[in-house]
Design brief:
- The complex is a heterodimer of chains A (390) and B (272).
- Chain A is an alpha/beta fold.
- Chain A has helices at residues 19-36, 39-53, 87-100, 114-126, 136-141, 143-151, 166-179, 197-220, 235-242, 270-273, 311-319, 329-343, 349-362, 383-389; strands spanning 8-9, 12-13, 59-61, 72-77, 105-110, 130-135, 155-159, 184-186, 226-231, 251-259, 275-279, 282-286, 322-328, 370-375.
- In chain A, a hairpin with a 2-residue loop joins β1 (8-9) and β2 (12-13).
- Chain A is globular.
- With 272 residues, chain B is α/β, with parallel strands linked by helices.
- In chain B, strands 4-3-2-1-8-7-6-5 form an eight-stranded parallel β-sheet.
- The two termini of chain B are 33 Å apart.
- In chain B, 58% of the residues are buried.
- The chains are: A alpha/beta (390), B alpha/beta (272).
- Chains A and B meet through α1, α7 and β11 of A and α3, α5 and β5 of B.
Chain lengths: 390, 272
């Protein structure tokens, strides 16, 4: 579904930004509608996805992981993309838009660095200078990705306000965009932010779901019973869900980061443990206190460590079309290790949340059931952290 | 409480622009904020924007963002903010406009927030991250409680939209003088601000107050020549940063005095 003209999915979404950005968002909205209606835009996008990103990404049938369950586990291998995660699908599309709009500079926020690397990559490819805003704590934690971004020619700006993590990096990217709104394109990395970003990013990640549905039908002649993806901001999940949203029999599962356990208050489960609020330009679920101060999120996975979630997920939760669950740090870590050993694939810690839940789900499904999981990224970026945790 | 328009009208009869000061509630602590409000009042400040601390202030630069974080770190909550308004009002001071991001209002409850603001004695409410399209419910509730809601226009706002914003604005129109966030350094582009204000004059008869990046008496003087009000925030907070109590209040007094003097038309070329 398309959000309404004010950018709402039901009661979620909208455009809660300083007036200075309204003209830019309206300009972007017009450019998005124009580009999406132009077959030439999609032709170019698809060629880049094929020749540069390496799409279609494989659909892999697990052989040994969860082998004691009757159901079949299928992995949509976004980890095989260039730069190692689904983030590049969105970055390519937004860079094409930026060029179309005549913008001469890209700005981006990043948490773990995956989106920052993706934007630095397309910046290099398109010859556009890139400024990446990254929390000072994350700069410290993810020094390898900082180096990669720099290697690709991007400027990485540490953000030392607030909690010095992804939330603050988004704040800073918005602020910088306010100043440089005339020549800069803000490449937002997830289905969050003010309208049209949640819609724009979904449409650019939809390729995951469209390919996966086609691959399922071709290979198995039937649809999966369940579709599972991790949810931080929620872009890989919304992209995968989008391919199945009209298939009412297919159950959609979003897996949030339960951190140390939702009950401890140390989680990143905005849908599970948050309440309705406004963060980064849209109304959705937010981890916040009773006076609307945003809480810090906690997750072993930097990519899920975000106190908000995309408004369309809030809508899907409300409508019941998708169900949201959570997986703790410990459970994700165990699945990470188990999956690596049984399939020879090191998943991103984000994806390990989805994998952990899918394994559990498989015990409740029969031999004819296919469970489709988004393997949203590869795990090399997480090795130092996993090693740390022992 | 006087209507905000009356404040601008009074300044005009005194042949000057209204001086509007922004301070953060609870920075460096609630008691000092009260002293600062007193000093601003005594110095002749016409309106006070009292910032409601919020941890994720998208429209603010590092000076105001840090002030918000200091206020939150020392435990400032909404009831402290309302209490400050109440205690300030007891002395018949300059009217207070609460300046709050939307999420604290939304979470607290739009009706409850506007009612308690009005009960405490606030005259208005400015919400920097609420664009016109999202203001309907809040404006309705503010209206019920007689809180005026000035709205913001930016250099990037197109005239047709600026006209609609001005039409919906309560009390005055807040003219954001540059692209970017609060606390920009360097002199404002006075020519551009003048053009912006002139454009707004054709669209509305409501008072026009200019803010963002005004810090020195010469900036204030230049803008006071053609605007109805001049707003100073980050520079003021910067002037008392690191101080508390009476010393802090004294710094505020010393800082705003030349700014307030600069609002007089007689000092400007435009009105000579």
């Amino acid at each position: 579904m398309k959000p309404d003209t004010r950018g709402y999915f039901g009661e979620f979404g909208g455009r809660f930004v300083p007036e200075v950005l309204i003209a830019a968002l309206e300009e972007l909205d017009a450019a998005v509608n124009e580009a999406f209606a132009d077959p030439g835009f999609w032709r170019e996008y698809n060629v880049i996805l094929r020749d540069y990103v390496g799409r279609p990404s494989p659909l892999y049938r697990c052989e040994r992981f969860a082998a004691d369950s009757a159901a079949t586990l299928l992995m949509k291998r976004e980890d095989t993309n260039h730069t190692g995660a689904h983030k590049i699908n969105n970055a390519v599309g937004q860079a094409l838009l930026a060029r179309r709009m005549g913008k001469t500079r890209l700005i981006a926020e990043t948490g773990a660095g995956q989106h920052g690397v993706a934007v630095a990559t397309v910046g290099a490819k398109f010859g556009l200078p890139v400024d990446v805003y990254m929390g000072a704590v994350d700069v410290e934690r993810q020094s390898l990705n900082v180096f990669v971004m720099q290697l690709l020619g991007a400027q990485v700006h540490p953000v030392s306000s607030g909690s010095q993590t992804l939330k603050d990096a988004v704040n800073e990217a918005f602020r910088v965009w306010c100043e440089r709104v005339e020549d800069s394109f803000y490449v937002l990395g997830s289905v969050v932010g003010a309208h049209p970003y949640p819609y724009l990013v979904r449409e650019l990640q939809k390729v995951i779901g469209i390919e996966a549905r086609r691959q399922c039908m071709e290979r198995f002649g039937r649809l999966p019973s369940d579709v599972v993806a991790c949810v931080g901001g929620g872009s890989n999940a919304i992209g995968l869900f989008a391919g199945f949203i009209d298939d009412q029999r297919v159950q959609l599962w979003g897996v949030e980061a339960g951190g140390e356990g939702v009950a401890t208050g140390h989680s990143a489960a905005s849908l599970g443990a948050g309440s309705v609020g406004v963060l980064h330009g849209s109304r959705s679920y937010v981890l916040q206190d009773d006076e609307g101060q945003v809480r810090e999120a906690h997750s072993i996975s930097a990519g899920l460590d975000y106190p908000g979630v995309g408004p369309e997920h809030a809508f899907l939760k409300g409508s019941g079309r998708a169900t949201y669950v959570d997986v703790t740090d410990a459970e994700a870590l165990e699945a990470f290790n188990q999956f690596a050993r049984s399939e020879g694939i090191i998943p991103a810690l984000e994806s390990a949340h989805a994998i952990a839940f899918a394994r559990e789900l498989a015990t409740h499904r029969g031999p004819d059931d296919l469970i489709l999981v988004s393997l949203s990224g590869r795990g090399e970026k997480d090795l130092a952290q996993v090693r740390c945790r022992g | 409480m006087p209507r905000l328009e009356e404040i601008f009208a009074r300044a005009k009869t005194q042949r000057r622009a209204a001086f509007i000061a922004y301070v953060m509630a609870g920075d460096p602590d609630p008691e000092t904020t009260l002293l600062i409000l007193d000093v601003l009042n005594a110095a002749g400040t016409d309106l006070i924007e009292l910032g409601v601390p919020y941890g994720d202030p998208l429209a603010d630069g590092p000076i105001i963002a840090s002030a918000a974080h200091r206020a939150l770190a020392n435990g400032t909550r909404l009831h402290h903010v309302f209490e400050l308004v109440r205690r300030h009002g007891a002395g018949n001071g300059a009217p207070i406009i609460l300046f709050s991001y939307f999420n604290p209002i939304f979470r607290y409850g739009i009706e409850r927030f506007t009612r308690e603001s009005a009960e405490a004695g606030a005259s208005g409410l400015i919400v920097p991250d609420l664009a016109l399209e999202e203001t309907a419910e809040l404006r309705a509730s503010a209206g019920v409680h007689d809180l005026q809601m000035p709205l913001l226009v930016a250099p990037s706002t197109r005239p047709d939209r600026a006209a609609r914003i001005a039409g919906a604005a309560g009390g005055f129109v807040y003219v954001v003088s540059r692209l970017g966030v609060t606390g920009a350094s360097g002199a404002p582009n006075v020519e551009q601000v003048h053009r912006q204000v002139a454009t707004m004059r054709e669209l509305t008869t409501k008072p026009l107050a200019v803010g963002f990046g005004l810090s020195r008496p010469e900036d204030v003087g230049a803008v006071a020549a053609f605007a109805d009000g001049v707003i100073v925030g980050s520079a003021l907070i910067d002037a008392y940063r690191g101080q508390t109590g009476v010393a802090c209040a004294r710094s505020v007094g010393a800082f705003v005095e030349p700014l307030i003097s600069a609002t007089a038309w007689e000092r400007s070329v435009w009105h000579s």
